[in-house]
Design a protein that fits this description.
By secondary structure, this protein is α/β, with parallel strands linked by helices. The protein has 2 domains: 1-31 and 114-205, 3-Layer(aba) Sandwich (Rossmann fold), CATH 3.40.50; 36-111, Rossmann fold, CATH 3.40.50.300. Helices cover 51% and strands 12% of the residues. It has a 5-stranded parallel sheet, sandwiched between helices. The protein is globular.
């Protein structure tokens, strides 16, 4: 009987280095990477149900000249407004999750994929444990995350503080995840070693 491919969820606060970990899993282990944010881009294209609902609620001022949604305008519109953020999430996230489930089912038809990696900011809040065999938490201490975000994205301390308000605490991440990767070190090989060990110990491979 053909063994079902494992699905590994990756989550962590903003600035925890998720893209670095995803790149490593893809290059070394040839994992199929599914990023919820990229799937959301597709679900928000003109002609989709999400697109129509977003325009209906948030107005046409968030559109570019080519009628596509300007994600920055939309982000600025909902930023710091928990009710609007929740409203947007209720539109987009169920569609994204449905599409991800479909992508995984489609992938079962090929032997080219050893396992899946699903990355989403709200992996825990959106109950991706229903899809994932395990969820891993990328931990980086707050000072290091702040330093990295200011250097890589040009975020101000004020913006980072506002973003943190809408994210789970370190304790909440740990309570819902089965494995923790400490990505605080600037020596990336330290992170890679933890990933290698985690994949073996948790029988993802």
């Amino acid at each position: 009987m053909k063994r079902r491919k494992k699905v590994l969820g990756i989550t962590g606060a903003v600035g925890s280095g998720k893209s670095t970990v995803l790149s490593y899993l893809e290059k070394k282990y040839h994992a199929q990477i599914i990023q919820a944010d990229l799937v959301a881009h597709e679900q928000m294209k003109p002609g989709t149900k999400c697109y129509e609902k977003i325009i209906e609620i948030f107005g046409r001022e968030i559109l570019r000249q080519d009628e596509t949604i300007d994600r920055k305008k939309l982000s600025d519109l909902v930023f710091c407004d928990s009710d609007r953020i929740e409203l947007l999430n209720q539109i987009v996230h169920p569609a994204v999750k449905k599409k991800i489930i479909q992508m995984i089912k489609e992938g079962e038809k090929t032997d080219q994929i050893p396992f899946y990696v699903v990355e989403a900011a709200l992996l825990i809040e959106d109950h991706y444990e229903e899809i994932c065999d395990q969820i891993w938490y990328l931990y980086v201490d707050e000072n290091t995350r702040e330093r990295r975000l200011m250097a890589s994205r040009g975020y101000t301390k004020e913006k980072i503080k506002e973003i943190r308000k809408n994210q789970l605490s370190d304790q909440e991440f740990r309570e819902h995840c089965q494995f923790v990767v400490d990505n605080t070190s600037d020596i990336v090989e330290n992170t890679y070693e933890q990933i290698d060990r985690g994949l073996i110990e948790n029988e993802i491979l």
